[in-house]
Protein 1
Amino acid sequence: MSEIQRPGALYQQVAAAIREAILSGEFAPDSLLPSEAQLMTRYGVSRPTVRNAIAALRAEGLIDVRHGKGSFVRSDGQPSLTIERRISRTPDGKFVMPNGDVWQEAEEPHTYRTHTTKATGRLLQLGEEEALFGCDRLLLDPGTGTRAMHRTLIPFAVADVVPALAEDPYKRSGALYRQLTEDGHKLTWSETVRARMPLPDERTTLQLPDATPILHLARVTHDSDDRPLILEELRIGADRAELAYRISADKQPARGTRH
Amino acid sequence: MSEIQRPGALYQQVAAAIREAILSGEFAPDSLLPSEAQLMTRYGVSRPTVRNAIAALRAEGLIDVRHGKGSFVRSDGQPSLTIERRISRTPDGKFVMPNGDVWQEAEEPHTYRTHTTKATGRLLQLGEEEALFGCDRLLLDPGTGTRAMHRTLIPFAVADVVPALAEDPYKRSGALYRQLTEDGHKLTWSETVRARMPLPDERTTLQLPDATPILHLARVTHDSDDRPLILEELRIGADRAELAYRISADKQPARGTRH
DNA sequence: ACTCATAACTCGTTAGGACGAGTGACGTCA
DNA sequence: TGACGTCACTCGTCCTAACGAGTTATGAGT
């Protein structure tokens, strides 16, 4: 029967006590926490209060709760998959996507036609409602079981001008890059990284645990004249994967980047 | 009185109905949702059920709830701050950190001495319990009000060998890089990006809304012989900031990256 | 017209109760 | 011995009830 007094609401005091016990190591990772009934008597509170405290800890990603079994301290293990966001070429000029070979396609790719949104239009330097080729892939890393959602978007307007893209806009990235390079294009890439909570369909598709954000990457392939050719998006659970970049120190002065 | 029947629990059906209404535009961003009492009569359920549904939508980051006012549709605005993770040099060799000038120090830096953990030791290619200089900064972007937590870690063992670091390990990054370069070091950088839910102290320090993950960056500065010199960590709320990288296509074959 | 107390709304917290559903151990029966 | 059903334990869902606390509009009083 621990005494609690500190700050604010009862359930927050209970949550703080449990959190402290976890972070101090009293409850080891993967170990079973006391049941709701035990916590009720231990802190002298009602079940809603205990459940409220547990809900707070779940939202922090500190514990996992399994129906019929109990609450477990989540092991804050490192991500098991490091995704190198780099593009390499073998001496004979062939593109090699780091990690590109480990990804399998868990389903048949889904190809479709769509239009730019405000967000995708901005990245492709287009207005809204511009026509696009779209291709969605569900990728799977058999080694770790990690899943990722991949999307390729190519504007009609670009495919009209670039034969390599009109031929088959639904190729995989490495094939597209190679084709473009063979046609004489000098490619550059820029990538933005964001994180957010998953929508329900992303949560089920990626098989994410509670309180797990997703990393959302947007990679734009540019031509030598800085015209955007391809937009690729990758969504992946942040519990299993991390991104790795090599940072280059170029000789040009930095430009302003706020927008 | 909308009818609901679909899947699983009652509160999930209610949550799905509200979510659908939001995503379909029936409830515009920043608009006020019906109150709990109204939702109770509208769906014919009790208050706990309504609150459970609302809690689910909060955890998804879809709505914000303000005590005494109501629930509001969160505007899924783009991040207002794009952080260029690039290192540039002016023609005379001076380092320029993109965005480096916009950051102010919201507090006096906190310097201390600590030891490697399993995670930081791995990045610095050291064992555990190796002595480190530490410096924590709370950064502030006055333009957007965005806050970020920055940490610099330098091993004693490195400072012993590299005079530029022993002199003052608590300088800001740009000054450290310049000093090292003047001393003849050829620097390279690698960076890993992860996302996770914030701990309570991070949540308050960074002033984060509900269901907002943080982006966690770890940048390692390497010497020309690939020895790690400096580890920098940056933690920032994913609601306000995104990261931008330029991806280089180098000529070397890719190495395996799984670990 | 202005000030300020009150009322009426909002969500937040806590309690108590009841039943459903997943899990695993135990014991019975074949 | 083995299969299987029961039971006790876990968390999940749903309800009623009451009060606290923040916000805003209303209206009375000055």
Protein 2
Amino acid sequence: MPIDGLATQLRKGVIEYCVLAMLKEAPLYGGEVIQLLRTKGQILVSEGTIYPLLSRLRSEGFVETEWRDTPTGAPRRYYRLSRSGQKAVADFRAERFRFRDSVNEIFPDGGRQK
Amino acid sequence: MPIDGLATQLRKGVIEYCVLAMLKEAPLYGGEVIQLLRTKGQILVSEGTIYPLLSRLRSEGFVETEWRDTPTGAPRRYYRLSRSGQKAVADFRAERFRFRDSVNEIFPDGGRQK
DNA sequence: CAAGGAACCTTGTATTGCAAGGCTTGATCG
DNA sequence: CGATCAAGCCTTGCAATACAAGGTTCCTTG
């Protein structure tokens, strides 16, 4: 597996909003985010990707956080979608569809293949 | 317009292959690449994006180049898709569909709108 | 008290897209 | 002839992202 390959570049600017979209359903902590990305989307991300990403979402106000103690060890920081985070997801959705259509115009046999 | 916004991140790793896909039809020089991206895909890119990108395609062997004089002024460097460039486009296509499906799994109401 | 696991964070690197500015060629105009 | 202009190409510096590697804290278990 290439350290920095084709798939890695495709992810840029997308994973962030995948996380926000998942938070729409329920608050999650870091480990759950990684697990859900893997099980729901076959998207494998490491902690080195997720934690800086979550930090940025927080500093941009897209999420709010809350510490919860656990019986099993270290406490967890749970992330919850904020109002402006909901708007960010909606904006991304629209932009994603626009861009997808653009690329489909350029690629021969746009997007209609299995 | 934000210097580095939502749309800019979405493009990463995609424009490169849009260019290769366009070269599948005919050899092009830098200015034509910029123009075609704009007219066919509504994708606005500047010279500062395209020329380093074309350089990289060349150093990776995805394209071959040829200088042609013009009657109008400076000569043009034309880019032609190589054999390995064709394979790169095919690989990208497959990876793009995979990733699209993954994201659709995560986003509520995946891709079926409008 | 040592070992280990769960959870979190930080640091450094590579890649990409982009703006700004510079260089070269040939035509045009004073 | 010299200056100006436009087309075409390239380089430099910056910001954002994904990632690996390594470190820290907390609690439990032996």
Protein 3
Amino acid sequence: MEYNFSDIEKKWQEYWTKNGSYKVSNDSPKPKYYVLDMFPYPSGAGLHVGHPLGYIASDIFARYKRLKGFNVLHPMGYDAFGLPAEQYAIDHGIHPAVSTAANIENFRQQMDNMAFCFDWDREVRTSDPNYYKWTQWIFLQLFDSWYDRKQNKAVPLADLITTFEKEGNKAHPCPGDASIQFTAEEWKSFDNRRQQDILMNYRLAFCGYGEVNWCEALGTVLANDEVVNGVSERGGFPVVKKKLRQWYLRITDYADRLLEGLETVDFSDAMKEMQTNWIGKSFGAEIDFDIFRTDEKLKVYTTRPDTLFGVDFMVIAPEHALVNLITTDQQRGAVEEYVAYVNSRSERERMAEKKISGCFTGAYAIHPFNGRHIPIWTSEYVLAGYGTGAIMAVPCGDERDFKFARHFGLDITNIIGDAYNGEEANPTKDAVLENSDFLDGLVMKDAIVIAIRRLEEKGIGIRKVNFRMRDAAFSRQRYWGEPFPIVWENGIATPLDIKNLPLELPHVEKYGPGPEGEGPLSNVPAWTARHLETNTMPGYAGSSWYFLRYMDPHNQEEFCSRKASDYWNQVDLYIGGSEHAVGHLLYSRMWTKFLYDRNLIGYEEPYKRLVNQGMIQGSSRFVYRIETKSSGAPIFASQGIAGIANTPEGHELITLAVRNILNDPNLSFESIGITPIHVDVNIVDGNELDTEAFKKWRAEYANAQFILEEGKYFCGSEVEKMSKSKFNTVNPNDLVAKYGADTFRMYEMFLGPVEQSKPWDTKGIEGVHRFLRKLWRLFFDETKGKVWTTEAPKDAEWKCIYQTIKKVEEATERFSFNTGVSAFMIGVNELTDLKCYKKDVLEKLVIILTPYAPHVAEELWHALGNETSVLDASYPKVEEKYLVESSKNYPVAINGKTRTELNIALDATQQQVEEMVLADEIVKKWLEGNAPKRVVYVKNKMINVVV
RNA sequence: ACCGGGGUGGCGGAACAGGUAGACGCGCAGGACUUAAAAUCCUGUUUGCAGCAAUGCGAGUACGGGUUCGAUUCCCGUCCCCGGUACCA
């Protein structure tokens, strides 16, 4: 009986489907466990071998938890709205709903192939009106809420209106615009429009104005990654910044709680650090500087008010409103030129710029304490969106300020004495201040408070907490997204009644933008006639709360019943890429906190534990075309030959070969041109090209000729991102067909730690396949058939299986699936050596293998005579008594270098060990008659003799 | 530029709390079985030097320093690669 994986896998997949083996109930006496994968975007390219890495890991863990007695929720769905589908629609005229549905079908087929234990009855799609009805509903709750600093939570807007009617807004300063202040009488005197405008500044989902990448030639707003070097990626047309009305989420109101919440979740330190840095909470002061000969004030934010006397110049962002107002006539030309240059650059380019640039405005700020005139510059290294868009530059203490001063030959005042060496800035907080007036003699970190106090007394500055994080832009000028359930009535945003949800996305034939950068919906007369909002929601809207919908996916009355969300509670394990570290994770954490505040769910962190999966990179293969200037057959040189093309030897070799192929005995090359070309990795075995397949691959290569090495064509290789355009994608379907899903799953895990990125190499999969066949042979022999017996196992056999269980269990618990697979291999190798074919041992092996290779496990489980599914077996317990050891082979090192081994009882004392070690011949040799300085003995680890 | 991660044999990787560097697998080499091949099995495989060999000696975890009896692991500095940087998802 052979290991016939395709029959086995088909058989059990049908069995599991027929028996609803993956159906999960919201009602179970077992403890619950929720395993979630990050939502995939169903791209047209389908899944390549890099995508399922996280899904396999989560699937193994979900199945493992099930064997451990948990009621496990492990759902899957699709983040189905998004830009690529819309771009595809524009390019091919296929409606996004149609292409998305087709892509989803393809994804589903690919996933089914890998036998994930998803409960597909719970599938969600963000583009399904039954789903986005609730995205719209949550949006309306955000729209109808504001953040009450007193209670430190989101509350309904109705309460705020009552307060305004009683006492104005003095108790609740306006988060959107601090200058808005009014009494109860004033509030009552405002007309509806004015009142609504004020309320908009409080709402958690609010309207404002923001800059977008506007491309006049394409007539559309572009995403950042569609803009390259200031021009559109498609067509290379100029892109400018354009201000448009936009929706925002006031995520900054949650900044502190997003920080605090990190202490309650099990994310990696790196992840927490990235989020902390993204939120970027800082403490400092806002200071107003008078500007010489104008009435304007320059407001700067600084975290280092202690360095106030080290300010040598000011820098304001080129888009700062003051630039125009304070630039002197002499400088105007230069400043305008500089601002135009900066405008053509993306924020990314500005931040990445190493070259120092800037322009003096001609204006001077006046130092509030010593009246010094401080030149005001503008430079791209200061961004308008952060702080006040202006900084006070202290070159002796800040590296960028220092370089700027050096570059433009500006004065550098030293306020920290010896701590500044004149060669580079010193950002210390521990130096003692000098040249600093009333701060002289103080240690910098103590001076911060004192400086702020003096600024506040003088009325020119205030203590200020600042966040780097900005409010989240929540609208897109696109078609393929959730419509906003908002009607504009005389300039007032009015929510649709809940009974009118979902507001369905209208069908359109054309996806082009509307006038002035408005979204495509502005071209739909039936839409604009109702004065509906023409923007749509961004990609992260639907993915900010999807983990809740899986709990109660068919609920028509609520986004998720409280009973369901209380039962499943937080996601116990969330697996996904670290590319979502700040975007998706912060948004969904904010939404969860909001739903908690409004008492719609019972917890404020969505994900209890987060594991990041690495990327699988592609391993590209190249063929090397020789540039013959001949229109005849393309000629390709094997890698070893192409590599030496321009050595005398290679030159001769290639020349002769080409003459031969082209039948042109007089042909000669001055130098040989070689062009590397990506070749489909699927027609390359290791590095050896299947030349016949290559000829069939593309018409232009049909009569290709090859210069071989040892009769073979070898390709070059390089690790790159896995993508269709590089022909380095591998479809899991092909590997499943060739080796089976069990092999594929185990191989993906065997590649390396899930968290790490690594290149894909199909070659190694055979080793894992061999392992499964070797396992099979513990049960069945090709000729003899059944070989397993019901004999009682010996101690050595028990020891082997319990060691394996222990290693696999520990590896699974810490997501070290690669070492888990290797523990299986070691176990099977040992059982084979022991000739152990005993049911009691093999049955345990089959159970622990279930999460990794469910099909073969189910088959062998039944072969051993079991009637029920192995999915519901219970995980075997380790019997420690078979694992106890009484002695250990200790490595004995001399000065840290291992020289020999000694078998010593585990309970040996230091003295006993020293005696044994010093009596050893090899140790004696190294001691050369001298007494050792020291003998280090670490129990159960090693021995080191110091000479 | 900033934030985060990573760099170990020909390759993927292992070494879990500072204690035998290279488990497991691929590849490669040699051998067994076979008319032959596939499959399977066995042996070897970090590297340099010495030796028929067992083995011995030295070097070695990106690079340069440091702490320690002992460093792939901790600290300082440098280089390279990957992810993110707010409208890709």
Protein 4
Amino acid sequence: MTEPSRPMRRQDIRRENEKAILLAAEKVFAEAGFGGATMQLIADLAGLPKANLHYYFATKEELYRSVVQNIFEIWLQAANCFDAARGPVDGISAYIDAKMEISRRHPDGSKVWASEVMHGAPVLQDYMESTLREWTDGRVEIIRRWIEEGKMDPVDPRHLLYMLWATTQHYADFGHQIETLNGGKSLSDRQWREAKENIKRVILTGIGAQPA
Amino acid sequence: MTEPSRPMRRQDIRRENEKAILLAAEKVFAEAGFGGATMQLIADLAGLPKANLHYYFATKEELYRSVVQNIFEIWLQAANCFDAARGPVDGISAYIDAKMEISRRHPDGSKVWASEVMHGAPVLQDYMESTLREWTDGRVEIIRRWIEEGKMDPVDPRHLLYMLWATTQHYADFGHQIETLNGGKSLSDRQWREAKENIKRVILTGIGAQPA
DNA sequence: TTGCATCCTGACCGTATGGTCAGCTTTCAG
DNA sequence: CTGAAAGCTGACCATACGGTCAGGATGCAA
């Protein structure tokens, strides 16, 4: 527990409340979907009266948009791992690690993102057509170069990327299924490590890039 | 167009209406999620008055349950491909083909299924703990045997299964993203074929099973 | 201390939604 | 032909939800 709240500064109040609301919203949106989520539920989870939510976020749509943009930022950051790399082994390994870490640390955000895309990306369409497309095209180019340089087999770069996204994202979106099949327990540290190792090994071997 | 409906038999009426409702429901649930879907929307899409829906399905929950169970049946059928096979190349190839065909032919159902699991499988929990678990355990055993017989590398069977599920399911659940990155056009026959080939090749090579 | 901007909230409102029902039409067994 | 069962539906209801607002509390600059 923290100190019984010092008289807070205005700035802090705003920051903390927004944070609390966004965190609660992320969880509720993830669990119930946009349509199933209620401002009341989010308010309760954030420990604030409902009317206060509307003070910080005018509408449910606006709140949702903020949540989605937040997770998109995180997603983009992980994407950088790809660039620094000199070859497929480094690059793809790092990317898998990063995305698996997101699935583990931000399962709610990942679910919201998945839900958004599944429902036709009403909020993120613009980002997908600009930022995401550019990022993807860039990475496709990198992979193509790796292939030319003989560092990996000639695999279609796009389908390879989809495979990376799918496999890593799955551990967040279908986490409940995985838990159920794991005897109702969430994956242990060891199991997460094994998951990463397996994925990296199968994919790197699969594309003909020698794992270390 | 079919013949301007002959005076229908009772049985036929029931069957046709249920079918129309389930089809419409699948689409609406997929597009809007359970919470965002409305009986009115489903009714409109099915071309029936709303009250008629409640004549066939007492509640929204019951209708949803039917939709989810339907897709689970399809999912289980595809699962059979695994059994007939003599080795990983046959088995996994067939399974990937079957699951990709589901993603292509039943994208709405796939999305509903994904949504259901993402939200904690409120309806399917029982199935997951019984049918799905048994199927999975059986398949894990088969893969283990393949490994023992030297037909493939020692890969963790569970994580391999997750990878198969994730990769194939992705083409339905994230179809919108894929379309957007494909210039706004849905994948062509050729692209679907390439997708399948890439996935099969990477995974089969990745687990050390010789592709044909 | 004062005045003002920010922060907060209980009570309220219009609407949309899931669901009901009384009474109609259609089918079909006997 | 007849009557009962199945199929159908417009009108209605209670509730829950997103959103508003008037007015109170609080921090803070001057």
